[in-house]
Amino acid sequence: MTSKEIVLGLPARFKSEEAASETGLFHFVLSGETGGEFTVTVANGSCTSEEGLSGDADCVITAEATDFEDAELGRTNKQMAVMMGKIKISNLGAMLKFLTMFRDLEV
């Protein structure tokens, strides 16, 4: 599974009941062959994910696509990837909230 597929698949993993009152705009900037730039929007109990960057992000996630894939697919510990600088997060508080709004990938 590529980072593009992972990010564009986020709406299917969204926990709409638990995150009904949450809002946020997140930019994913994933470099490399399987990456791209994406905007994920959470508002009114729903989530959308689209290619390209739009709006003013609450949080920007930057990584090599392969590092992001390794973290999402369980090949690397997510926290370690962040601590080692492989995945950069502009707003840790917003990202921690973001993580609670989605079910983990089934690998």
- Rounded to the nearest angstrom, the radius of gyration is 13 Å
CATH superfamily: SCP2 sterol-binding domain
* Helix/strand/pairing category: alpha+beta
Level-2 CATH architecture: 2-Layer Sandwich
The gross shape turns out to be globular
What proportion of the residues form beta strands (DSSP E)?
A: 25-35%
- In DSSP terms (H or I, runs of 4 or more residues), the helix count works out at 5
CATH C-level name:
Alpha Beta
CATH topology assignment:
Nonspecific Lipid-transfer Protein, Chain A
- Looking across the biggest beta sheet, what order are the strands in? 3-2-1-4-5
* Distance between the first and last residues' Cα: 10 Å
What is the topology?
Layout: H1 3-8, H2 10-13, E1 24-31, E2 36-43, E3 46-51, E4 59-64, H3 65-72, H4 78-83, E5 87-89, H5 92-100
Parallel strand pairs: 1-4
Antiparallel strand pairs: 1-2, 2-3, 4-5
Could you characterize the architecture of this molecule?
The protein is of the alpha+beta class. The protein has one domain: 2-Layer Sandwich (Nonspecific Lipid-transfer Protein, Chain A), CATH 3.30.1050. Helices cover 31% and strands 29% of the residues. It contains 5 helices and 5 strands; from the N terminus they run H-H-E-E-E-E-H-H-E-H. It has a 5-stranded mixed β-sheet with strand order 3-2-1-4-5. The model has no long low-confidence stretch (mean pLDDT 94).
